[in-house]
């Protein structure tokens, strides 16, 4: 994002610069909207990859979403936090950090093709009920999580086991026939 410093301030690099309330709002909004558009397109590609069962494309889409989230996070860090809603701001920041950890864990399980009941994060149970102590900190009391991703197709496993059993039986018959 290319911004110019106000006349009474020296120009600084974008990465170290804080966007002040009201200044460069158009540039910041344009960048934010473009990041949201890119995020939506990456989510669509992720949904298509999951629908077709293409794990490689799904992992690429997750990586793109992670990169976009990092850009959005840096953009948000440049903005001053809201003065009157600091408690809600901190609660949302904690929630986002928890989600980043859960996504990293679940992506690791997806990439390594590990599955099972112990290989999902604590927020990956269908519904995420927020307790009374967190209800005041986070505005939502019930959120719907994505359906669990089945990494391993059970028909594929059963088919492989049947083929393996058939190969073992045929080799046993061949060994017995050659011994006679």
Count helical runs.
5
Q: What is the helix fraction of residues, given as a range?
A: 55-70%
- Whole-number radius of gyration? 25 Å
Question: How do the SSEs run, as a string of H and E?
Answer: HHHEHEH
Shape by Cα distribution: elongated
Count the beta strands: 2
The residue-averaged pLDDT reads 69
What is the beta-strand fraction? under 5%
Major pleated sheet: 2 strands, antiparallel
Which structural class should the secondary elements be placed in?
mainly alpha
How far is it from the N-terminal to the C-terminal residue, by CA? 81 Å
Low-confidence stretches: 1-19, 123-144
Strand order across the biggest sheet? 1-2
Region (Disordered): 1-23
Biased composition (Polar residues): 1-16
Keywords: Membrane, Transmembrane, Transmembrane helix
Transmembrane segments: 156-179
Describe this structure in words.
Keywords: Membrane, Transmembrane, Transmembrane helix. Residues 1-23 are annotated as: Disordered. The chain crosses the membrane at residues 156-179. The protein has 5 helices and 2 strands; from the N terminus they run αααβαβα. Helix content is 60%, strand content 3%. The chain is mostly helical and 180 residues long. 2% of the residues are buried. It is elongated.
Question: Which structural traits does this protein have?
Answer:
mainly alpha, disordered N terminus, 60% helix, 5 helices, 180 residues, two-stranded antiparallel sheet
């Amino acid at each position: 994002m290319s911004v110019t410093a106000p006349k009474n301030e020296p120009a600084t690099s974008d990465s170290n610069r804080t966007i002040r309330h009201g200044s460069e709002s158009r540039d910041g909004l344009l960048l934010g909207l473009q990041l949201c558009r890119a995020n939506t397109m990456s989510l669509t590609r992720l949904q298509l990859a999951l629908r077709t069962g293409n794990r490689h494309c799904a992992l690429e889409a997750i990586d793109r979403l992670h990169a976009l989230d990092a850009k959005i996070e840096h953009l948000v860090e440049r903005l001053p936090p809201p003065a009157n809603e600091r408690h809600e701001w901190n609660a949302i920041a904690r929630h986002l950090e928890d989600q980043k950890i859960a996504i990293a864990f679940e992506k690791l399980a997806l990439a390594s093709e590990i599955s099972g009941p112990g290989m999902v994060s604590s927020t990956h149970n269908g519904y995420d009920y927020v307790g009374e102590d967190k209800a005041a900190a986070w505005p939502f009391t019930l959120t719907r999580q994505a359906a669990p991703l089945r990494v391993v197709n059970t028909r594929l496993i059963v088919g492989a086991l049947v083929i393996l059993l058939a190969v073992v039986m045929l080799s046993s018959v061949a060994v017995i026939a050659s011994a006679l």
